[in-house]
Amino acid sequence: MKKIINNPDDVINESLAGVAAAHADLVRVEYDPAIIVRVDAPVQGKVGIVSGGGSGHEPMHGGFVGMGMLDAACPGDVFTSPTPDQMEAATKAVDGGAGVLHIVKNYTGDVMNFEMAAELAQAEGTNVEAVVIDDDVAVQDSLYTAGRRGVGATVLAEKICGAAAERGDDLKTVADLCRKVNANSRSMGMALTSCTVPAAGEPTFQIGEDEMEIGIGIHGEPGRERMKVKSAKEIVGMMSEAIVSDLPFNSGDSVIAMVNGMGGTPLIELYLVYNELNEFLKEKGITIARNLVGNYITSLEMAGCSITLLKADDELLELWDAPVLTPALRWGE
Amino acid sequence: MKKIINNPDDVINESLAGVAAAHADLVRVEYDPAIIVRVDAPVQGKVGIVSGGGSGHEPMHGGFVGMGMLDAACPGDVFTSPTPDQMEAATKAVDGGAGVLHIVKNYTGDVMNFEMAAELAQAEGTNVEAVVIDDDVAVQDSLYTAGRRGVGATVLAEKICGAAAERGDDLKTVADLCRKVNANSRSMGMALTSCTVPAAGEPTFQIGEDEMEIGIGIHGEPGRERMKVKSAKEIVGMMSEAIVSDLPFNSGDSVIAMVNGMGGTPLIELYLVYNELNEFLKEKGITIARNLVGNYITSLEMAGCSITLLKADDELLELWDAPVLTPALRWGE
What we know:
The first copy, chain A, has 8 helices and 14 strands. By secondary structure, chain A is α/β, with parallel strands linked by helices.
């Protein structure tokens, strides 16, 4: 896979420099260690929210730093956990005296490093809570994960917890909300093609010209099943059935739905998928109250998509609707 | 190229149904003929703004329908001009008594059909002005175009003219602004891979595993040169030099810059490109006053990017900053 890059070793830093130049009104970037920080951090008296993980999933997480969402993000190398010192630096940079929430996707390296960073920060007097996101119903345990993987619910948790922190909720309340979002969210993904990590230069996995993989992970980790490419209706049916039956979501439920592109699938297909999802849920008596359709948690240039559903109540919807002002998500300013 | 679709003949309508379901608060969709209309159109006393063109370039144009941008978009089949009756229906749907501006990308079919639609609408009493966008410096004449092709400047023109119409400017003023944006904009694109039209099922063109094409069109029309893949710095240098020398942009100029993805290039590369562009322009004494980095005018799943620069003055920046509320672009609500 060809890429528009210079030296593969410089991809992260050069991309971060682009983020810094493009969004100087919203974020500042530090390079040693690499963190993306809300421009006005630390906000005194507000709970700080930090997330992070391997790069290659943009706009997550750096694109979600700003008012009403994350206070800082730690970008690791591509598909590689950030280091504890990145996480510690981010935690200290956003500590406005009300403590810091770590939103951690469930990958072994991320969990371990965030734990270490929390200990370091706590030793220096910052109150830290961590919530691990594990919404992917595809598989139990995986290539880089014990238990379920953390995927799309991370985006929803970052938005909702960001709004709660913004209105002044305390650390325990924001962390409880994060657990509530995770407990009520389920996701599943699929891919038509592999992605290629810049430093590797070769596709992460091989897949036939007429094949797709259901339940794939955001780093190309094996999913549930490799099969011939099906119609959008069948693809959405398989993913949605797995998601809906898992929580379960029931008739009468209201949900926040995200149809997410893996990076290489055009918007015209994502809206077509959203249409199928909407029809599928209507049949089940489930109503989509809010939605996101687009590329939010990607796998470089992988072609494919994922679906995330969050069972919503009035509190979650109010926090969802609250203003947000980040590079990748902005409304109600 | 595998796609997440059902019957290739249904891609547009099923995708439109997804847009309608996802954005019912912003737009309504009509199917016969197919148009995407601002939910509160026609806005009495406001100049209506209509654009359109072949589908496959999403979010353009349907994603730009809403307050402060387009009043309606006409989606043709993939890479195929919409019909005059679509354009006429859109024109009538947004005529609030102050006339309607057609923003037309310079492709022969689009220009011809918009002309026909304007005649039809005018015969029925709607005042119509049309402005043709032709900002692509890559080639003179092309596969589907006499003269230069219309590309990224269309997005900027739609935003700026939308803001002018929103503040109450009359038809001539809005049309003159559109001409000013076009006259002061230049663009160029490049691709690493082809795209595949769903109904064709085969790549539009062949390109080697180590090749790229500079100056390519948004339908895969031939560009300036096929060559071995270069570094991001060299790629941005070639495109930017062609753009800057053409207008020309001069030291001391302030610009609105768009780094646009063709659909299959991840955001991490687009920000890396933005960084190179920013460095290139700094060297020339040109300042980026505002920017867009992301997928705005795409070519299905083509990997590649384009750069658009618009020489900005205070009036253009004020209109750029004005509130916009559409599926794909929203700020300052």
